[in-house]
Amino acid sequence: MITFVFSSFFMTIQNRPQKEYDLVIVGSGIAGLSFALKVAEAGYRVAIFTKKTKAESNTNYAQGGIAVVTSAEDGLDKHVQDTLEAGDGLCDAKVVREILQDGPERVQDLIRMGVEFSSLEDGRISLGKEGGHSKRRVLHVKDITGKAIEDALLANIAAQGVDLFEHFFAIDLITAKKLNKLGMGASKSDRVEGLYFFDAEANEVITVTASAVLLATGGAGQTYLYTTNPSIATADGIAMASRAGLSVMNLEFIQFHPTTLHSLQGDRFLITEAVRGEGAKLIDAHGKPFLKKYHPLADLAPRDVVARAIDREMKRSGASCVRLDTPNMKVDFKDRFPNVYENCMKRGIDPTKTPIPVVPAAHYSCGGVPTSLDCSTKLAGLYACGEVACTGLHGANRLASNSLLEAVVMAHRGAESVCKYLAGQKKRLVCLPEWVDGDVPASDERVVLSHNLEELKRAMWDYVGIVRSTKRLERAHARLRNLRREINEYYWNAKVDVPLLELRNLVCVAELIVLSALKRKESRGLHFTIDYPDQSAKPKNIRVSPRS
Hints:
Flavocytochrome C3, Chain A, domain 1, 34% helix, FAD/NAD(P)-binding domain, Methane Monooxygenase Hydroxylase, Chain G, domain 1, 4-stranded antiparallel sheet, alpha/beta, 15 helices
């Protein structure tokens, strides 16, 4: 077991990495930070590499909270049932129960680290209710839960000697299989040997040896034109895993958050689902609630139902958005949702007086790199945690606020597994090849890449959105296939930089999403196609083989 020791010191941001670590973590969200803390506590050399700043992650933008059973009025069986119903027949029931039952203990870890969850006047923890939940069970820090957890994690890993490197972009995994092809005498069985990183500040590529690697890179929201995700969510981990020879699973299940702020400037600020949990109702152009005719839970129906209902209402009426009726809520909006209130006011909307205009936007990837319950993948030494991974918890649609829960639970389990793996590794000398850059310098031709990015995002939004068809998916695939060829040709001949590397990953994963959607001949959860409107009798996972 791992002993927990916490400190008030702050970590030092390093400038230059060492050549070798026991564990390299790619990403600095809740999954990566939790993992790093626990492996470093066991005495191993751990480094975190993040492509921007340490606080820039999907975690930092998570408003809702973390779903955990803490009330006597609730129970594990109820949480399990809600998760299974939201997952629409595709959750792994064993995985669901094991992750959810570990939740309360992991929440206590967070509290010991200094996370102060919102409480009621009588001292009890304040529990929110979100779509798909039958009980109030969402712990929150007002509406900045993700940021509060991330801040606490960052403040608690300093004493463990974890190196953190900002502005380092992970290009690709180095595996024994790749080294053997180069005749460099690596292990006969395939495993992780290290990574290439692009140092964005020094404008150079470095090589780092690692006995184990954790992918904690978040999701793929930036494959779409409109998304709640920050700019860093370019599917880097999924793309790297695919290029390393791993299949991906259930990538067709892209969750569109039903309520993001609609603006003419395209600013899609997230309006947390907890707003509806506190009584706000979605209304149409005539000011009438409409969710009741789509689902018995009305405004608290699962996200896939709500997103499709909004999409249908907008297409039926020709309206550019629907609205959240916030002025008629019984709670003090400014106090309960200070972050949402501030961001609405900045955009000229007072939610205490005016309904908030909202539209759906790409929010969360329920699929990813398949892992076991210890975060391990099919590639020895490679682990995945958080949104980049596919554990079986979310199935065809994620239950609200189960993602932060999954990250902290799986990080704990994965850390224990990594420590066992590292303890069994013999000291070995591995000579990794240095990076060879392309001959073409940055030039005016890079404008082509920006055009490629726009085309990719538009194709995904228009053809691989909330409602799909085989014809639309095939059209998207044809465009993405051509884009992939063009971008890869540029990649192999040009000097790399962050925009090129991100675009390479985006086109790789966008194509994987489309191929997954084409393989699923049914409508289930987040995947709705007009050509196959019914569910198949037997639910199955969709796997797609690697893409170069």
